[in-house]
Specification:
globular, 64% helix, 1% strand, mainly alpha
């Protein structure tokens, strides 16, 4: 059954993140460090009595896919077996050489070279983009996006962007500028897919760089590329699914799309990282089976944090509830989590008392 009406859609969100459960999670925050909540019990995990961090992470990703694949939300429907298998086989057998992937951005080698040069400044890095008016316009647009905008006044010049975000920030934005053109995908069945996946990649990139700097003590530049390439991986999975659905002459469905995105986003992202010759730590982290340390943990956290941020931005959970869910993920100290969360939203979460936790 397709849940496209307002009541069905709201009911689905209510079951996923329940308002009452959100209140209960808030009440369970009992241990504080420097004024920050350090412990919370995720509502669904409490109800299920299961692994809280795995449950919180899974539900945040479910929410992300619901946003990206809306309005084709199927309640209880099964995957389309033939379409699922055909897409899996196509992804397994595909030639993942550089010729079969989106073309590597021409300016990417120059960007990597400047990042590896300790004498390189933000202005020198920005000069990579400044020669191209189109790329400069894209840079300013991304600098004004929710992931990077740091104040009310718009960023209206390259010089101002450099002043506000500094060398590392401008490198993050340039990386996003280079990746964005290859992530665009037309999909009439899931019209929001490209927009949501791009927003998630951008927020993941920002959260990963911050987490690498403050928590895992890893290279922020490599971390931000983890956020971007996982988004590109999702776009390529959807592109393959569209091709197989057209070949089989069957309609796309939500369960099949979600299952493929869950299983194949990171493996495809790793192929992209290798083909584009991104820094070795990027594809090593995407390949890692242990996600509890280093860059793999940073990627895991960043994807969940970006999903929570998007769900809050779209009004499906309150910001305080999003923070409560992220508290369930292991390995991020409370003060670092709060700082990253504030950076994703541009203002302290404590000021958001008027947010409606769990509203759908």
């Amino acid at each position: 059954m397709s849940i496209t009406g307002s009541n069905g859609w709201a009911g689905w969100w209510g079951r996923l993140f329940g308002r009452a459960g959100a209140r209960h999670a808030t009440q369970q925050r009992t241990q504080r460090h420097d004024g920050f909540v350090a412990e919370a019990v995720a509502p669904a995990a409490m109800a299920a009595g299961g692994d809280t961090d795995a449950d919180a992470e899974a539900r945040l990703h479910s929410g992300l896919y619901a946003l990206a694949l809306h309005p084709a939300l199927d309640g209880g429907a099964a995957c389309h077996g033939a379409l699922l298998e055909a897409t899996r086989q196509a992804l397994l057998s595909r030639d993942w050489s550089a010729r079969q992937l989106p073309r590597r951005p021409q300016l990417l080698p120059q960007l990597i070279q400047t990042v590896n040069d300790p004498e390189s400044s933000a202005r020198a890095t920005a000069a990579i983009i400044g020669q191209d008016p189109v790329l400069t316009g894209n840079l300013l647009r991304i600098a004004n996006s929710p992931a990077f905008r740091m104040q009310e006044r718009p960023v209206d010049s390259l010089q101002r962007a450099i002043t506000l975000v500094g060398t590392e920030g401008i490198r993050q934005i340039i990386s996003a500028v280079l990746v964005q053109p290859v992530m665009h995908l037309q999909c009439s069945e899931f019209p929001q897919f490209s927009t949501i996946i791009w927003e998630h990649a951008l927020l993941s990139s920002r959260a990963a760089a911050d987490h690498a700097r403050t928590v895992s003590q890893q290279d922020p530049f490599a971390a931000q590329w983890l956020g971007l390439t996982q988004g590109l991986g999702a776009a390529l999975v959807m592109k393959q699914l569209l091709q197989e659905a057209q070949t089989l002459q069957v309609p796309l469905d939500y369960p099949t799309a979600e299952a493929l995105l869950r299983q194949w986003t990171l493996p495809v992202a790793q192929r992209v990282a290798a083909a584009w010759e991104l820094p070795a730590p990027v594809h090593e982290a995407l390949q890692a089976s242990n996600t509890n340390s280093g860059l793999p943990r940073t990627l895991r956290f960043a994807r969940a944090a970006a999903a929570a941020s998007l769900l809050a931005r779209h009004g499906h959970i309150g910001k305080s509830q999003g923070l409560a869910w992220l508290e369930q993920l292991p390995g991020t100290p409370p003060h670092a989590l709060l700082w990253i969360w504030r950076r994703l939203h541009g203002r302290p979460v404590e000021t958001l008392a008027d947010e409606h936790d769990g509203d759908a």
